[in-house]
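Hi W., the guanosine-5'-diphosphate complex you wanted:
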Amino acid sequence: MQLNDTIVAIATAPGPAALAVVRLSGPRAFAVADKMFDGNAKPSAMAGHTLQHGRIASQRGQAVDEVVLATYKAPHSFTGEDSVEITCHGGNAAAPAVVEIAILAGARQARPGEFTLRAYLNGKLDLAQAEAVADVIGAGTQAAARAALERLAGGLSQKIKAVRSGLLDVLAQLEAAVDFPEDDLPQPVVAEMKRTVDAARRHVGKLLEGSRTASILRDGARVVIAGRPNTGKSSLFNLLLREERAIVTELPGTTRDVLEGWIDVRGIPVRLFDTAGLRETTDRIESEGVGRARGKLDQADLVLLVIDGSKPPRDEDKTLLDQTRELPRIVVVNKSDLKPAFAPQKGWVKASALTGAGLHKLEEAAVAALTGGKGVDAGSAAAANSRQLEALQAALRGLEAAAAGIQRKLSHELVAEDVRAAVDALGAITGESIGDEVLERIFSRFCIGK
Ligand SMILES: Nc1nc2c(ncn2[C@@H]2O[C@H](COP(=O)(O)OP(=O)(O)O)[C@@H](O)[C@H]2O)c(=O)[nH]1
Ligand SMILES: [Mg+2]
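Structure:
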């Protein structure tokens, strides 16, 4: 982990834009800026948190762009190091030229996520917060961004740290008892230990409960519309997408390929799929479409099984109801604008893809199904990515084993081992116990300039 050089990168997206930002960070950030900036004062002479208007010039003195330069003095910066941000014009010319000049002046091109890595290594953010930076940038909806911001503010980290600190006390007592076996722990101390371990189990269990919602907010949910031909799947797809994307006709077998689009369902980013009607067919193209539709069902976080409410259910509907029984699904009884041909079962949602009736109920049911009935807010500050989830699960296993060990009066040494496993797993989330290899894997997924 190299920290003694000075890094530079464009922090904004490429392409035509009013402005772009180039970031410099490291011990020589001001020395580099002095060489390239042409203004009233040298950047190194500016106070921290101030701005100056000026020009960036090449070594031969040729002006490249007119900019505003901002200073951040260590440790009062995002990375904790001396940092300079140069706001130049957007587009494909100015910012890359500024980076080039900075490199000629002694900076090095930053690797993906390197600014955030430095913020972590300098103690400005813990690991869960650093991961949240990438989640804020990648958020597909405002609710997803809110949940990530909560993690960035330390919502998850504080909970983890509180639990871990209680467990460290337990561990200290157990280890002291191991070293002095003749002083067996008094009963009240053991009882207190048991209470701490049980409370930790409850807290970790809570964090795991919200995590499904958190990961769906972060990664989006896959929702697949399926059903027999002509039930109105494509009409529903278009309605939810608010766009006439799929072809709708009265001919069965119109949709053959899988269509997809992103929608925001009350804050949940949803990748919605429209599929070919499921039926036996001899048409080679349609049959390929049916195969693809079935493939999509297995990967779905939620299936919307559409049946036509204006016609008596066919055998094909019954087969599909059976086949999707084990999947997370909502049965949508479509064409509610027509005379109903049967009474829907409890929990089925009546809707009309033609008039939009029942859409609210359907969205409500979808949110409930995707969040296990807890609602979108359950995702705030909960563990969101698989690394955090696995660590929480490992912590829970350790705590359960420790609780059982205390109950069964196992030796202090054995109980301590389980408590330590939980402490280490929790520490991995915030980065207190983590190797360089894992760090590299985490930060390499960031974009450059972050
Ligand atoms: N009355 C009525 N007709 C509908 C409704 N939804 C779809 N349709 C009609 O049903 C036919 C099949 O629709 P489509 O969306 O292509 O069904 P798909 O084969 O399941 O994709 C078309 O003629 C649609 O206009 C609805 O809610 N009410
Ligand atoms: Mg269709």
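The longest strand covers residues 63-72.

W.
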